[in-house]
């Protein structure tokens, strides 16, 4: 799942996936807010879940943080809970 998330982030933000290491700071990638929306929409479409933009997601500082948060929300949704 993590590889798919990286693939989506790279494609939607038009960033080389080699630059998306878990410890890479999101601010260093120059991802704009519109890119985040497109990334979330693509993840939602790929995994069939809705991911709200909440404070937890906005607190992500690194690519690893983002991946962990998104993966946990996908797992929660797949377990039948509300995300």
Summarize the topology.
Layout: H1 2-13, H2 33-47, H3 55-58, H4 63-78
Helix pairs in contact: 1-2
Please explain how this structure is put together.
Helices cover 57% and strands 0% of the residues. The chain is an all-alpha fold and 83 residues long. It has one domain (2-78): Non-ribosomal Peptide Synthetase Peptidyl Carrier Protein, Chain A. The longest helix has 16 residues, at 63-78. The mean pLDDT is 85.
Q: In sequence order, what are the helices and strands, one letter per element?
A: HHHH
Task: Name the helicity range.
Answer: 55-70%
Poorly predicted spans = none
Identify the CATH class.
Mainly Alpha
- Number of spatially distinct domains: 1
Number of strands: 0
User: Looking at this structure, what is the CATH superfamily?
Assistant: ACP-like
Q: Structural class of the secondary structure composition? A: mainly alpha
Proportion of residues in extended strands:
under 5%
**Count of helix runs:** 4
Cα gyration radius (Å): 12 Å
Could you name the CATH topology? Non-ribosomal Peptide Synthetase Peptidyl Carrier Protein, Chain A
What is the first-to-last residue Cα distance?
Answer: 18 Å
Mean pLDDT over the residues: 85
Q: Sheet bearing the most strands, described?
A: none
Coarse morphology:
globular
The CATH architecture term is Orthogonal Bundle
């Amino acid at each position: 799942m993590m590889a798919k998330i990286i693939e989506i982030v790279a494609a939607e933000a038009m960033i080389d996936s080699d630059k998306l290491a878990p410890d890479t700071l999101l601010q260093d990638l120059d991802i704009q807010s519109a890119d985040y929306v497109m990334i979330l929409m693509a993840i939602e479409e790929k995994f069939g879940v809705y991911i709200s933009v909440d404070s937890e997601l906005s607190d992500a500082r690194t690519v690893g943080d983002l991946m962990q948060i998104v993966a946990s929300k996908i797992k929660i949704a797949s377990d039948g809970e509300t995300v």
